[in-house]
Amino acid sequence: MNNSQVINTLLIVIGGGVLLYTLSADDVSPYFKIVGLVIIMLGLYRATNFWVATKDDHKTDNDNKED
To answer: Which residues are listed as membrane-spanning (predicted)?
Structure first.
């Protein structure tokens, strides 16, 4: 697994953890919810950019095998 994929996954999990904490705890600042959403969205943004950049990698692998 690529290092950037690990970072993206950790960002999504940490953001989800922050949001779950805000749902379960009483008297939590709404800023924690905002921070959790921002962390999740950052992880998702990075992950989709990685997927778009590498979506055609399997085609070049197949082309190299045919040669």
So the answer is: 6-24, 31-52
User: Residue 24 half-sphere exposure, CB side, CA atoms within 13 Å?
Assistant: 6
pTM score: 0.75
Question: What is the spatial distance between Cα 47 and Cα 31, in angstroms, rounded to a whole number?
Answer: 24
Answer whether 47's CB lies under 8 Å from 5's CB: yes
pLDDT band at 63 (very low <50, low <70, confident <90, very high): low
CA dist 59 and 66 (Å) reads: 11
If one compares 54 and 19, the residue with the highest pLDDT of the two is 19
- Taking alpha carbons only, the member of 44, 19, 43, 14 closest to residue 32 is 19
